[in-house]
Write a structure and sequence with these properties.
Length: 236
């Protein structure tokens, strides 16, 4: 039998929810107030030529965007396969079947929430904005969008979210292999940042789009972890 790891409830919520939430709100407020989105995007946009030089480059488009998408699919398929194998009583993964189910569901939940938000938010991609040669107005996160604007289909960032969804590896390893939990954290953060930076270079997203995707993936994994493993959380 797999011995359950006991976690202090108060400390767990403080470290994994309250502090990250405060940091997220603070960083988002700073980015919005100081127009950091526009400042970063301006470094990737060629105003003289009215174009995004990296929009269709081999590295950012073919490797990190298209190739990254297939890499994410491959990782998701590997997780699904491991969970299916774990359903066999004679499998080496059998005792981890609940943990693998958490990994699978949490890996789907973040990107799904992001897609749902993208279909209802009125925030546009940089390459669509009048500021960068497009025809759409610049609408910040806390601006009033009005009733005449079309849905932007750009916020939060889906591609960065496909990387940040692997932040769930941190929660998975927290119980399965606690000494390796920060490797899971670094993998999810690193993959999401690589995807996000590539899309910023292409003009597809702002930094705040990526930050919001990170928050969605982290907090959705947190909530699901609380639901799946509440018995491991004790009032100590």
């Amino acid at each position: 039998m797999l011995e359950p790891t006991k976690l202090n409830f108060d400390k767990f919520v403080l470290v994994h929810f309250i502090i990250p939430l405060l940091l997220f709100v603070l960083v988002l407020a700073v980015l919005e107030y100081f127009h950091v989105d526009l400042w970063i995007a301006g470094h990737f946009y060629n105003a003289g030529l009215h174009q995004w030089p990296h929009k269709e480059s081999w590295l950012t488009e073919n490797v990190l965007h298209v190739g990254g998408r297939y890499f994410t699919y491959l990782l998701a398929a590997a997780v699904a396969l491991c969970w299916l194998i774990s359903l066999r009583a004679d499998s080496a993964f059998f005792r981890y079947r609940r943990h693998l189910l958490f990994l699978l569901i949490s890996g789907i939940s973040g990107p799904l929430i992001i897609v749902l938000l993208k279909n209802h938010t009125h925030i546009y991609c940089p390459w669509s904005l009048e500021l960068f040669g497009g025809d759409k107005p610049y609408v910040r996160l806390f601006d009033y969008a009005g009733g005449n604007l079309e849905v932007g289909h750009c916020f939060p960032a889906a591609h960065a979210g496909a990387g940040f969804t692997f932040l769930n590896l941190y929660f998975f390893l927290l119980l399965v292999k606690p000494d390796y939990k920060f490797y899971g954290l670094c993998f999810g953060l690193g993959l999401g940042m690589v995807y996000g930076i590539a899309q910023q270079m292409r003009g597809a997203h702002f930094l705040t789009h990526d930050l919001f995707a990170l928050a969605v993936c982290w907090f959705s994994s947190f909530v699901l972890f609380m639901l799946f493993f509440r018995k491991q959380l004790q009032w100590l």
